[in-house]
Amino acid sequence: MELQTTLDIQHLRKEFPILHQQVNGYPLVYLDNAATTQKPKSVINAISDYYSRYNANIHRGAHHLAHIATEAFEETRNRTKTFLNACDKGEIIFTSGTTDSINLVAQSWGRKNLNAGDEILLSMLEHHSNIVPWQLIAEEKGAIIKVIPINENGEWDLSAIDSLLTSKTTLVAVNHVSNALGTINPIKQLIEKAHTVGAKVLIDGAQAVAHFAVDVQDLDCDFYAFSSHKIYGPTGVGVLYGKRELLESMPPYRGGGEMIKSVSFEKTTYNELPHRFEAGTPNVEGVIALGTALNFIHSLDWQSVHEHELELLQYATEKLSSINGLKIYGTAKEKVAVISFLIDGIHPYDLGTLLDKQGVAVRTGHHCTEPLWNHFGVVGSVRASFSIYNTVEEIDLFINALKKAIQLLK
Amino acid sequence: MSIEERQQEIISEFSMFTDWMAKYEYIIELGKELPLIDNEYKVGDNLIKGCQSRVWLHAEEGANGNIIFTADSDAIITKGLVALVVRVLSDEKPKEIAESDLHFVKDLGLNEHLSQTRSNGLSSMIKQMKMYALAFQIKSIE
Predict the structure, then answer these.
(1) pLDDT of residue B105
(2) Any residues with CB less than 8 A from the CB of B99 and at least 6 apart, and which?
(3) ipTM of this predicted complex?
């Protein structure tokens, strides 16, 4: 595939069939990309191709179809290893999504390593799926959850981190990018500090991987989790990267086929990495299509993705800021193309409803980050999140629709 | 007026709106009207929490054994819809409420507000109204 050094947006949009439709009589303006991105034709075709040509259960059958399916499945593991710059493919575990990846670490690594009085450090920006799995295991083990506070711009309060990281800190679990505010967190700095007190670090990368290159060796994180559906791949597939020595020390947390070496009623020995953590028949077509999505991303140039998304972010921020009574939540210096906002005296649900009536898809509510909105003292926000296929013209449609909604509601 | 007649009345009121904007303007107007619930009842016990907007519902027995509903929401469109549901079900016999079929929301093309994805508390409110009706029915048998 040819590398696109400058994004030809109109050409790119043709790759995404779903974008070309009317919703409620208006052209669809899809600005809910932080929830899930749309899929290029190549990804959609990969799923259909799998079922049309080589559907088989993998790693098991000795027949032709099983061989092709296994090869394709493992090829995605290779591509994911390259995508994250992991050391070896045994460090890449396929799960059902970021949530599943985090639960795997909480239930396997957490159950083995957490003790009463140990501290787990989260941040105010976390998604519920990077809070609740830790609460479950913390309650069971008597561990304590601590929280990194944020400033008014939605950035971590770095001065608080030094006192929060102590010899009792066993694990730090934070997101790379905030789903609600778009803040890019200084995780490299945090990882380095956490390691000096002997803590392990899990990064929830769900909102990062679509926007910039991630290098787990450079970051030196211990675990990194993300979901396929947020980077143009299918739903139901996620990735957990873990450092080999950590994964090898972790007990399996789900039993079944595939994850074993041998089973008898007296004793079962477990398979090697990564299969030890992949019990049961996996989402074969999903993993294969994730490989296609990674190929699609590989065909883009990160610098041009960054420039395009920055243009959208700046243009939308400028347009939104000129609306009377509108407040943007999340004004970090480093942020991805996500804008959360509220308008004085108007409930986000009402805005979301009237935007939808005009073909504009945004997210409204607390975005699974209730503690964050409680901190701001509001019920939630309207969130517009942009992707590579969004255009400046779409932002104009969005702003006009928003103005009409405000006019109706005021 | 029966529950069915009230629904037909609303459907006929809405039939004059030719586009979504006029329809929503009307719902928003309904939502802007005075509070539908006494502040003393706008408390946690009466809160039906949706993922997005919140609804408060209070039920009491009227003089003739009918149930009087009052309700409110923090979102204005939800509040307008709540006002319509209250208009249809309030001041009716418990049995009629429990057995009612609220088809008018769908007939008005507002079904999206009852879908799971919106989680605005409206469908939970209707369920809760029917629960109250059943509870009042059991109480009257006892």
Answers:
(1) 87
(2) none
(3) 0.88
The CATH architecture of the domain made up of A45-298 is 3-Layer(aba) Sandwich (3.40)
Residue B45, domain extent? 3-137
Rounded to 10 degrees, what is the CA torsion of A158, A164, A167, A168? -140
What mean pLDDT comes out for the span B57-78? 90
In a domain, B142, yes or no: no
Fold of A9-30+301-409: Aspartate Aminotransferase, domain 1 (3.90.1150)
Q: Cα–Cα distance between A64 and A61 in angstroms, integer?
A: 8
- Would you state the structure tokens that stand for residue A228, as one six-digit string? 């396929």
Contact: A379, B24; criterion CB under 8 Å: no
Please list, in sequence order, all residues whose beta carbon lies within 8 angstroms of the beta carbon of residue B112, skipping any fewer than 6 positions away: A356, B118
Phi, psi angle pair for B105, to nearest 5°: -60, -45
pLDDT tens digits along A160-175: 999 999 999 999 999 9
Q: To probe the interface with B, which of A350, A379, A410 has the most B CB atoms within 10 Å? A: A350
Mutation pick from A128, A347, A367, A382 vs chain B, by most beta carbons of B within 10 Å, is A347
Q: Residue B55 phi/psi, 5° resolution?
A: -130, 135
Residue B89 lies in a domain: yes
Of the candidates A123, A177, A161, A129, the residue with the CA atom closest to the CA atom of residue A145: A123
Distance CA B71, CA B12 (A): 24
Of B53, B74, B76, the CB nearest to A409: B76
Q: How far apart are CA A258 and CA A81, in angstroms?
A: 21
- Overall number of domains in chain B: 1
pLDDT over threshold 70, residue B34:
no
What does pTM read for this prediction? 0.93
Residue B114 sits in a domain whose CATH number is: 3.90.1010.10
- Low-confidence spans in chain A with pLDDT less than 50: none
List where CATH 3.40.640.10 sits in chain A: 45-298
Residue type, A63: H
